[in-house]
């Protein structure tokens, strides 16, 4: 029940995204920021969040298609259905009565608890799914500091995908791959 309330907006967003016309961006119009940086402990501990992908011998168009596919797939949740919300109605009273479970407060409180849990895990799940999808396509993952990561992930998702595709299909990074 609660899962349906969470899954429905995600499915609608994905359907709209899948049916939307993705703008075509020319390889020549994509400007890649300088990826050179000096690693520090703070950056290294956040490489799981801030990173990019590369695959030797892949074309820009293939890399762009792979990134778009993995990004779309990454928005699908990895956790299972949330069980029914059953409030506890006292130390020795046993499980809550049907009237207590169906009360408006139990639904609101349960919804807030589930909503907070879902919101806190969705970004982690999205990143994990993206990493797994790109890994299955034989891309290697490399870490970046947050400020450079923001440059390759601008507010315009189509341009962000194109920048990442140009990096993924460009010269091999000199840094050590994370995986």
What's the quick description here?
This protein is mainly alpha-helical and 179 residues long. It has seven helices and two strands. The model is unreliable at 1-12, 15-19 and 80-92 (pLDDT under 50).
- List the total number of helices: 7
Protein structure class:
mainly alpha
- Which strand-content bin applies to the residues? under 5%
Strand order of the largest sheet: 1-2
SS elements, strand count? 2
N-to-C span:
38 Å
- How is the quaternary structure best described? single chain
Using the alpha-carbon principal axes, give the shape.
Answer: globular
Uncertain runs are 1-12, 15-19, 80-92
Q: How large is the radius of gyration?
A: 21 Å
Main sheet specs: 2 strands, antiparallel
The helix-strand sequence is HHEHHHEHH
Average pLDDT rating = 77
How much helicity do the residues have? Answer: 40-55%
Q: How would you describe this protein?
A:
This protein is mainly alpha-helical. It has helices at 2-19, 41-45, 60-74, 98-101, 104-136, 146-152, 157-169, and strands at residues 51-54, 140-143. α3 (60-74) runs antiparallel to α5 (104-136) and α3 (60-74) crosses α7 (157-169). It is globular and about 55 Å long.
Observed structural traits:
53% helix, 179 residues, 2 strands, disordered N terminus, two-stranded antiparallel sheet, mainly alpha
Question: Helix and strand layout, with pairings?
Answer:
Blueprint: H1 2-19, H2 41-45, E1 51-54, H3 60-74, H4 98-101, H5 104-136, E2 140-143, H6 146-152, H7 157-169
Antiparallel strand pairs: 1-2
Helix pairs in contact: 3-5, 3-7
